[in-house]
Amino acid sequence: MYESHFGLAQRPFAETVSPSVYVPLPSHAAILRRLQYAIVHDHGPAILVGPPGSGKTLLARRLASDLCANPVHLTFPALTPPELLAHLAHEFGDGTAPYPTLGVALRYLQSHFALTVQNGQRPFLIVDDAHLISEVTTFDTLQLLLNFASTGSPDLALLIVGAPSLLLDLPAGLADRLAARCILSPLTEAESADYVTGRLAASGATETRFSQDALTALYRAALGNPRKLNRLADLALLIAYAQDRTIVDDAIVRTAAREFQRDAA
Predict the structure, then answer these.
(1) 172: domain CATH number?
(2) Whether 56 and 161 share a structural domain
(3) Beta-carbon neighbour count of residue 182 at 10 Å?
(4) Residue 73 three-state SS
(5) Confidence (pLDDT) at 119
(6) Which of 5, 6, 2, 1 is nearest to 205 (CA)?
(7) Average pLDDT over residues 97-116
(8) CB neighbours of residue 240 within 10 Å
(9) Pairwise CA distance, residues 57 & 93, whole Å
(10) What is residue 74's three-state secondary structure?
């Protein structure tokens, strides 16, 4: 609605997990390097945790993009072991073959993982929202998949993503094998400003659209949470557009914050 008014090619703060909207921030770049090191050097599974809206899924997809990997992204992991293995066999396969039994699914996954590694690649599984897993046997199944090691190291690259509570819920056997434990913290004030301006630049902005006071107000209202930043910045642009303004100031951000709180109530 407001894109042309601000000279933008697209909405800069739309909800998306596309790696193309990733803004390189110091804290996130450090986490990406740790995860990439663990995955590339076959050191074992890695875990990424953070509060809702902190950008975990986007960071996971950016990692896959940086690794030139085409992962299986499990977005609903609360499955029983047979359901999980059948689903993974289907996703790693061509999407057509049936996997009627646990044994058939396991044999397929083992052979597929080994063949992928033999061809110079590595199967990559991202388990998102893993804090939703309620059955310990589901975690045990993920751990057992790491035992497929045709060259000595696990054939499967595994990234587990979830809420901070996941660090406490992860079974000891799987936790002991983790090569990297990464925690997404809220953005600093400087990172928050860089995030907003970076998202604007990626959408075609050629000049400032938020005053420095507005960026400070955004940080204080969102407390460094990227999802809240997206929603507040988007609403602030809409309010500025309605007022025929081309620059968002701190007063507009405060108005957006009040409306956001009413909507969330």
Answers:
(1) 3.40.50.300
(2) yes
(3) 22
(4) strand
(5) 93
(6) 6
(7) 86
(8) 24
(9) 23
(10) strand
Secondary element (H or E) of residue 46: strand 46-49
Distance CA 157, CA 119 (A): 15
* Residues 6 or more apart in contact with residue 165 via CB below 8 angstroms: 131
Q: Is residue 16 part of a domain?
A: no
The encoded tokens of residue 221 equal 């209202």
Residue 232's domain comprises 4-10+187-264
Half-sphere exposure at residue 217, Cβ-oriented, CA atoms within 13 angstroms: 19
Query: What digits encode the pLDDT tens for the residues 138-188?
Result: 999 999 999 999 988 899 999 999 999 999 999 999 999 999 999 999 999
For residues 49 and 130, what is the distance between their CA atoms, to the nearest angstrom?
Answer: 9
Q: What is the pLDDT of residues 192-243, one digit of tens each?
A: 999 999 999 999 998 899 999 999 999 999 999 999 999 999 999 999 999 9
From edge to edge, which strands make up the β-sheet containing 180-183? 72-74, 124-127, 157-162, 46-49, 180-183
Residue 121 in tokens: 């690649």
**140 φ, ψ (degrees, to nearest 5):** -60, -35
Amino acid (1-letter code) at residue 26: P
